[in-house]
Amino acid sequence: MSRYTRFLPDRFTLFLVTTVIIASLFPAHGQGLVAFNWITNLGIALLFFLHGARLSREAIIAGVMHWRLHLTVFSATFIMFPILGVALKPLLQPLVTPELYTGILFLCCLPATVQSAIAFTSMARGNVPAAVCSASASSLLGIFLTPLLAGTVVVASANAPISFDAVGQIMLQLLLPFILGQIMRRWIGAWVYKRKALLKFVDQGSILLVVYTAFSEAVNEGLWHNTPVPALLGLVFSCAVLLALALLGCVIMGKVFKFSIEDRITLLFGGSKKSLASGIPMAQVIFAGQAVGAIVLPLMLFHQIQLMVCAMLASRFAKRPH
Question: Which residue would you say has higher pLDDT here, 55 or 60?
Answer without folding.
Answer: 55
